[in-house]
Amino acid sequence: MPLHSLTVHELRPLMVKKEIKVSEVVQAYLERIETLDSKVNAYLTVMGELALREAALYDEGRKDLNRSSLAGVPLGIKDVLCMRGTKTTCGSKMLENFVAPYDATVIEWVKRSGAIFLGKTNMDEFAMGSSNENSAFGPTRNPWNLNKVPGGSSGGSAAAVAAGLCAASLGTDTGGSIRQPASFCGVVGLKPTYGRVSRYGLVAFASSLDQVGPITRDVQDAALLLQTIAGYDSRDTTSVNLPVPYYVEGLKKSIAGVKLGIPREYMIEGIHPDVALSMEKAIKTFRELGAETVEVSLPHTDYGVAAYYIIAPAEASSNLARYDGVKYGHRSTGAQDLLSLYRKSRSEGFGAEVKRRIMLGTYVLSSGYYDAYYKKASQVRTLIRNDFIEAFEKCDALITPVAPIPPFHIGEKADDPLQMYLSDVFTLPASLAGIPGISIPCGLSGDNMPIGLQILGPHFAEEFILRVAHQFEQATDHHTHGPTLE
Amino acid sequence: MSEKISEAEVLHVADLARLELTEGEMIRMTEQMNQILSYMETLNELETGSVEPTTHAIQLQNVFRSDQVMESLDREIGLSNAPQSDGANFIVPKVI
Questions:
Q1: Is A383 within 8 Å of B33 when comparing Cβ atoms?
Q2: How high is the pLDDT of residue B59?
Q3: Residue B1 contacts A, CB cutoff 8 Å
Q4: C-alpha separations of A218 from A58, A374, A475 in Å
Q5: CB contact under 8 A, A377 and B43
Q6: Any B CB within 8 A of A310 CB
Q7: Count of alpha carbons within 13 angstroms of residue B93, beta-carbon side
Q8: A275 near A405, Cβ under 8 Å?
Q9: How many H helices and E strands in chain A?
C-alpha cells in the first residue's frame, strides 16, 4: 500500500522499526502537497521546513519515536487553532496576516506527543459554512470529484486526509463541521462531548457548541488522536474534569447484544435514496454483528435547524465583536474616526456568510426580540437535549445518516443560505445537546461519492461509539476505498 | 410570506453590529434575513412556557481559581499583531 494511504497505526510501526525514515515520510507528504494541492486547495499554510527539521530530530536519534503513539506522524491542523509563530487565518481576510502569539491547548498537547505539523488547513470563514465555499482563500475541492464540495467547515482537514496530504488531521465541530466533511470525503470524523477537549486557543465561533476533534482514515486512528487531545484544562472554564479512558483498548470488544436506536425522524421524505439505501445496508450489517436495532423517536428533530441558526449566530455576533481593526486583524485605511474604523475594518474584513450570521445574531439578541428568538431557541434546545436523554433510556447509541444528501456541486447551494442550513439537519441536534458523534464511511452514491453514517452516544460515551464504529468498519470495506487524484 | 424585517431595520441592526452594507448588500440581506427569520417561525409551534432554557449542554457549577498572577503575554508579543502601535500602546484615530 502506498505510504500516503497508511493509517497512523500502520505507519508508526514502520518508522519505529526503522523500515522507513521519518523524514522520508514527511518528504513524501510534502511532495504530494506540492503536486496535488493546487487541485484540492486543502492547505492555507504549509510548514515544510519546520516539519523536515522535526523529522530529522527523530532520524538523528535526538528525539524518541516511542514517546507516544503519535510521535513522528504528519498532521494537518484546521486553521482555526492557534499555533505559536504560525499564521492562523480562520479562512478570513480579517486574519490574513494574524500570527498566533501562543499555542492552543490541543496544539501544545499534540506537540508534546511528538507529532509533526505539515500545515494549516482551509476552512469556511470563521468555521461558518457546510461546503468550504466560504473560505476567503478559495474553496477546497472534494478529492473524489473536484467539482464537488468537501463539506464544511473543516473541509480542508477532511479533504487533506482523503487525498493523502496528511496522515490525519484536527478539525472543529460547532454544528457538524467535523462529521459532515468527514462524511463527504469518505473518512472518519469524531466530535467529542462538549467539554471533553479544551477550547483554549480555538478561535471562538459559538462558545457553547465549539469542540475540537480528529479526522482520520480509520476509527483506531480517531481513538489515538482523541487520546492525545482529551482531558481537563484549567484554561478553559467549560472543560470537564473527568478521567479519560484508554480509547483504543475498548475498540475490539464485541457489540453483540448492544441496542442501537434508529430515530424515525431522521428517515425523512427528503432524504436522498442513495443515503437511505446505505443506511439500510448499515442497519443490516449491525444486525449481523449481533446488535439489536430499535426504532426510537427524537420528536423535536425538525426544530434543530431553527434553534441552532438562532443560538450559533447569537454567540458568533458577540464573539466576533472583538474584530475591530485595533488589536489585531484587518484595519481599514479609509477611516476618519474610531467608529468608522470599526465599521470599515469589519465590512472589508468579513465575507458574506460571516456578515449574515453577525446580522442574524445581532438581530435575535436585540432589544424586543430576545425573548421571541434567543430565549425561545434556548428552551427548544432543552427539549432537544431531553429527546436524546430519553432515547438513551431505550438504546445504547443512535445510528443515523450524517447528511440527507450526498456531496453536492460547488456553487449549487451558494446563493441559498437557508437550503445550505437545512443540509445540517442531522448533525445540529447532537451539537445542541452536547453529545458525542462520529461519522464513518458507509457506502457510495450512484455518482461514486462517499456517504457517511453517524453514531451518536450519551455524554462522555466516546469510548462506546468508537467501539460501535470500529466494529462496523471492520465488518465492511468502505474505509479502504479512496479517491484517485493522480 | 409576511415581512419580518424591513430595510430600515436591517440598517439599524448593521449599525448595532458595526457593519456598513452597500445598497446591494442591504437589499440582499433584507431578502435573506426575511427568508431565514420566517423559517424560524416554526419554533412557535412548540409550547415552551414552562421549559427552562439551556445555555450550555454540560452544566457546570461556578468555576473558581485562586487569585494568583500567572504568566501572560509579553507586551511586545501582545502588540505584535496590532495594525498600528508605538511599541507600548495600540494606536487608534483621535477620539476626543
A1: no
A2: 77
A3: no
A4: 25, 38, 13
A5: yes
A6: yes
A7: 15
A8: yes
A9: 16, 11
CB atoms A101 and B43 under 8 Å? no
Let me know: does A77 contact A46? Beta carbons within 8 Å. Answer: no
What is this model's ipTM?
A: 0.95
B95 to chain A, any CB pair closer than 8 A? The answer is yes
Q: What is the pLDDT of residue B61?
A: 76
Q: What is the pLDDT of residue A164?
A: 98
Closest in B20, B36, B83 to A309, CB measured: B36
Catalytic residue, chosen from A92, A131, A153, A431, is A153
* Rounded CA separation A174/A17 (Å): 39
Per-residue CA distances from A82 to A63, A98, A137, B73, B81 (Å): 24, 10, 18, 14, 13
pLDDT digits (tens, 9 = 90+) for A379-391: 999 999 999 999 9
* Residue linked to cell 476533534: A213
Cβ of A321 under 8 Å from any chain B Cβ?
yes
Place of cell 459559538: A206
Q: Is A177 annotated in the active site?
A: yes
Q: Would the CA dihedral through A105, A200, A167, A24 be positive or negative?
A: negative
Work out the burial of residue A299: count CB atoms within 10 Å of its CB; fewer than 13 is exposed, 13-18 middle, 19 or more buried.
middle
The three cell numbers locating residue A72 = 513522528
Predicted confidence (pLDDT) per residue in A439-476, tens digit: 999 999 999 999 999 999 999 999 999 999 999 999 99
**What residues does A142 pair with on adjacent strands?**
A145
Instruction: Tell me which chain B residue has its CA closest to the CA of residue A94.
Output: B83
Cα B74 vs. chain centroid, distance in angstroms?
Answer: 28
CA distance A443 to A105: 35
Residue A261 cell numbers, joined: 436506536
Q: Select the residue of A327, A339, A380 nearest B90 (Cβ to Cβ).
A: A327
Closest CA to A401 of A176, A223, A213: A176
Note which residues in 55-84 of chain B have CB less than 8 A from chain A. Answer: 55-58, 60, 63, 65, 73, 77-78, 80-84
3-state helix, strand, coil in chain A (%, to 5): 45, 15, 40
B15, B25, B43, B79, best to mutate vs chain A, most A CBs in 10 Å: B43
In this structure, is the dihedral angle defined by the CA atoms of residues A300, A314, A127 and B78, taken in order, positive or negative? negative
pTM across the whole model: 0.97
Mean pLDDT computed over every residue of chain A: 97
Query: How many beta carbons lie within 10 A of that of residue A234, not counting itself?
Result: 13
Q: What's the rounded Cα separation, in Å, for the pair A140 and A443?
A: 22
How do beta strands A116-121 and A74-78 pair?
Answer: parallel
Active site residue A78: yes
Q: What is the pLDDT of residue A100?
A: 98
Chain B hits for A339, Cβ within 8 Å = 18
Instruction: Write out residues 90-119 of A within 8 Å (CB-CB) of B.
Output: 97-99, 101-102
Identify the closest residue of chain B to A364 by CA–CA distance. B37
